[in-house]
Amino acid sequence: EVQLVESGGGLVQAGGSLRLSCTASGFTFADYAIGWFRQAPGKEREGVSCFMSGDPDPYYGDSVKGRFTAYRDNAKNTVYLQIDTLKPEDTARYYCNKSPYWGQGTQVTVSS
Asked: What percent of the chain has pLDDT over 90?
């Protein structure tokens, strides 16, 4: 059974940082693409970052380039999302994805 478990969200002030984690199980982690998405209230789910299978370098959505850094640790079956210089518009629930599976998400709330 595939499981994706996100953690690390919270309430932070604008300008702060967070590191989100997604730990996976139930499949050979290193062999698959893993992505981060986010969804704000009333908005569509947005792609944030993605590691394609076999490619060590992540792709980023245009809205987060320069402030978000993703990295994966295949030995720990975990992908991380470091978010710096947080803005109120980063407020959203952040999800991990290994198609077609989704984690439950972790909430990030940024106060101004």
From this structure: 89
